[in-house]
Amino acid sequence: MSCIVNINRFIIPNDIISTITNIYKYIGKNDIYEQTVGNDINRIIEQTVGKDCYYIARILSLDISDNRMRLIVTKNSSPRTKDETTLYRIKEVLTMIQMKHQDLTTQSNDLINIANYINPNQNIKYAYQEENKKVILKSQSMRSKRLLLDEINDISNNILAKQSFEQIILNLHFFIDFYNLKPFSEENETTAFLLLYLLLLKAEVYCFKYVSFFETLYNSYDRFEVELKNASFNWNEGFAQTLGFVRFFTKLIFDAYLNTEDLIKAYEFDQNINKSDNIENTIYKLPNIFTKEEIRAIHPLVSESTINRTLSKLRDENLIKPLGKGRSAKWIKIN
Predict the structure, then answer these.
(1) Which domains, ranges and CATH numbers included, belong to the chain?
(2) Which of 82, 116, 256, 265 could link 207 by a cystine bridge, Cβ 3.0 to 4.6 Å?
(3) pLDDT digit string (tens) for 46-59?
(4) Are 265 and 301 spatial neighbours (Cβ–Cβ below 8 Å)?
(5) Whole-prediction pTM value?
(6) In terms of DSSP H, where are the helices of the chain?
């Protein structure tokens, strides 16, 4: 049991070494990205967290309408249902991770506190694992999964302190261990996703400050599920086959950095011209019927207020008019 305990068995093949090397070339530009966006970094992270909330809600199949989701994520509307409370608190946790990830730890107490915070109506506790040993009473063979999680965490921290294994790949194996261990009585899946988010940022994979991690994951979720299932096979026996998962995930990170490069270039371009004029020009090139989402896809780092201001200006000039309301509302050009 545990990938981390057996991490020295994992041989990194040449193609993954190549991908990791390219990722580190972009990680070396993290400071340049932040210097480029300057004081807009907090606004950009807020937008990224908003997208993260929308897509993790889809991944977790939370029963929340798009309109309520928008109000909770962008307006801090008070939650009305259990699923809305979960999303509201996930947003707070994601924001905390973005802002304070280097100070946060993956200790067992911290992770169960996250689980209990997400679901305040449940007294989430550690589950137990039955060990293979001969005892008189069954209860004597039960071991708290907290102890197993602490062991995995201690080994991981020791490896990082010695710098004896590459951190991104190590952290991916930590996630696989947590996912399969299922250490809590409730909220294991949600906590696992938030742990993965934290582990990536702690490895300075800062493309996910600019590009939504959960949107990126959602777009490849079928493949993610397949690779995670394959990586979990024989996990209990200590022979998990994690190569496919690592190959998939390092490629996902590399592609996210390519998207970040494009976003930063677009941001630099927008800084050199009037942002509203640039959005107007984009609208003219869109189909006769379009949505704000299409504009955001082209200008993801432009603020919501700038997009709304441009739409209102064109509406007042009788160049466009809205079709419906809410997040999925469409606009039509007036010829």
Answers:
(1) 7-40+103-269 (1.10.3290), 273-333 (1.10.10.10)
(2) 256
(3) 999 999 999 999 99
(4) no
(5) 0.84
(6) 14-27, 30-37, 41-59, 66-75, 82-100, 108-118, 145-162, 167-181, 188-202, 213-219, 221-232, 243-271, 275-285, 292-298, 304-316
